[in-house]
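How it folds:
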Amino acid sequence: MSRAPSADVAAELVAEHYRGEDYRDTRLDVLCEILNLSKGALNNRFDGKRPLLIMAALFAWRQWPGRSPGTCTSISRARTVMHDGIRSVAEFLNHERALMTQLVIGLGDLSNYEKRGGETGWNSENLGDPWAPVLREARLRARWTGFAGLLGSHTAAAGRAVGQLDAADHESTGAALSDLVLRTWWQNTQASPTTIADQLVGLWFDGCFAAKLGSWVGRADVAEIQARRSLRPEHAPTWRVASQAELGTALMSGQTLWRRAMKELDTALAEHRRMDPVLRGQLSPLLMASLYSRVGQSAFQFGDFVRAEASLEQALTAAEATGNDQDLARACTNLADLYLRTDRVAKAVELARQAVASRPLRPPFSSPVPRLWDNAVISSAVLVRCELEAGRVIDAVNRARDLVAVVTGHDGRTVAPSGPAAAAAWSCQGRALLAAGHSAAALESLDKAATVADTAAGVNSLPARQARVLRARCLLMRGDVGDARLLLEALAENEEWIAENMSFRHALAVRRWLGLTQLAGGYPDAGAETLTVGFAQLAEHHLPTSDRLVVDYRRALAQAAVAQGRPGTAVADLAQLVDEQLSAPPLPRRLRLLADLGEAYVADGDPDRALRVFRQALATTKTSGVDGSHPAILAIAVALAELSGADSDLEALRHLVRPALLRHGLRTLEEGHPLVRRADGLLAPAGKAGRGQKQLPQ
C-alpha cells in the first residue's frame, strides 16, 4: 500500500473521531493496520497524536468545496475575490467547529521539545504533499497553513488585476492569511463568515496589496467607486466624464495597467462625444487638453502608436488653444517621445527643446508646486533620449547628469527622491552612459532607477522593468552573458500578461533581447527560436514594415542566421532592410544596420563588399551631426581596420586607446569595452600602442 493513500485514509479515520470531540478514542490498532506500522513505530512517528490532529483538519478541509477565484479585471473585483476566499474558509471553520477548535488548542500547546526535535518525534516528511508542508509549518512555527492553497490562488488572482505577479509572494501571503483567518475566527467563533471576511479583507488590502504597490492602488480603488456612482441617472454627464478621466489617470499613475487606463480614458472621451453641445461647453478646456493627452500617453505606453498620435496631436491643438504653458509643454513632451519612437528624430528634437524651454530644470523663479519640477525632469529626460537617437551622446550624458543633480537635491531642488520622476532621471542617466559605452557607471544608475521605480509603482511597473532590461544590456556589453540571460528570463516569465495588459512592445522587446543574449552565449538555435516566436507574435499586431520594432527583429533574425552558419540569408535580409531605409538619415540606428550588413558580408566570404559598406557608412557620418566618438561610428571604424589592415585605418583608432577625456568628463569608451579590446588587438601586433604600451602619436 502506497504511503499517500494510507495517509488519506488515516486522516479520514482520525477526522471522524475529532468531529466527535474526543480523538483519544481513535483506534490505534486500526491506524497501525492502515499505515502498515507497529504501535511502537506509530508512537514514534506521531508522538502525542498531534500530527494526526493536523492531518485530520487538513483532510476535512480538502473535502470542502472551495470557491474558484475567477478572473479579476479591476481593484473592486480583487476585493471581492479575496472576500469570497476568506468567507469560504470561515464557513468551513464554522462547519467543522469541534475539529478546528481542537486544532487551535493543539497548535498552541506545542512544546519546545517538539519544535526542537526535528523529525525525530513526527517523522512526517516522507508522507509527501500535501501533508508534509503543513505538518512542517505546524511543528516549526506553530502555524496553520492548511488554507494556503485556496487563499494563495485568490491572492494571485487579485494581484494579477494590478500587475502583482510574484508567485512566491502570493504563496507566502496565502500561508500567512491561512493562519490569520484561523486565529481571527478563534477570537470570536460566533462571528459570521461575512464579518470575518470584512475585517480581514481591509487588513489584506492595506497591509499586503497597497503596501507593495504604492498609493496609486488606493487612489484607483476610490476612483472606481466614483466612476460606478457617476453612472446613476441622477448624475450629470459632465461628472461621468470627470470620473472616468480620474479613474484612467489613477491607473496611469501605477505605470502598469496601460491598456486598461487607455480603455477608461477612451470611455470618458466617448461620453464627452455623446453629451449635449450645451453641456459639452461646460467642461473646462484644460480638462479636455489633459484628457486627450492622457489617452495619447496610455496608448503610447501600451504600444498603439497610431491611436497615440491622433490623441496627442489633438492634445497639442487643445493646449495651444488654452494658452497654458504647462499644458503646451506636456503636449510637446509626449509628441516628441512618440516621434522619437517612430523615427522622426528631427521633429522630436525640436518639440523636446520647446518643452524644455517651457519647463527648464533651473527656472529663474522657483515654483512651490513639486509636480512642476517633476514635469521638468520628464521633459528633459525625453530630450536626453532625443539627443541619444541623434547621436549627440556627449550632450545627452551631460544633460542626464543635470537631471540626477536636480533629483538628488544638489542644486537645492526638491523632486521626490522615491517618485516616478526620480526613477526616470536615474534611468535616463543609465541609458545615456550605456549608449556612451560606459556600462559599469550605467549599472549604478540603473540599479538606483529600479529601486526607486519598485517603491513608486511596484516591481512589475513598466519603468522598473525597463530599467532591468537596460541592466541586462549593460551586463551583455560587459560579457556577463549568464547574468543577463537570467535577468531577461525572469522578465519574460509573465510575457502573456505583460503583452495583454501593460505593453506588447515591451514584452516583445524583452524577448528580442533574450534571443540576442542566447546568441551571445553560444546558443544559436535557442536564440533563433526565441526570436522566431517573437517575430510571429509581432506579426499579429499588423505593424508596418518600417516600424522600429519590426526592423529590430529583422536585424536580430539576421544575426541569428549568421550565428547558425547561414550568412547568405542574413545578407539578403539586411540588404533589403538597407534598401527600404535609403531615405533614413545617417544616425546611429542606420549606422548599426550598415555595420550588421558589412559583418554579414564578411561572414559570407565577400570582404570587398564589406569594405565598401563600411567606407560608405563612415563617409555619411561627416555631415550627420553624430559625435565622432559615438560607439556606432567606432564599431564601423574597428571593423574596417580589421578588414583592411591599412595604416590609415589603424591610425584612426588611436582615440580608442588614448587616455584623453571628452566633454562629458569620460573616456571615449570604458576600460574593457569590446571595441577597445578589438582595437588593442589590432594595434599591438602592428607596432602601435595598445593599453600599457608605447603611446600613439597625437
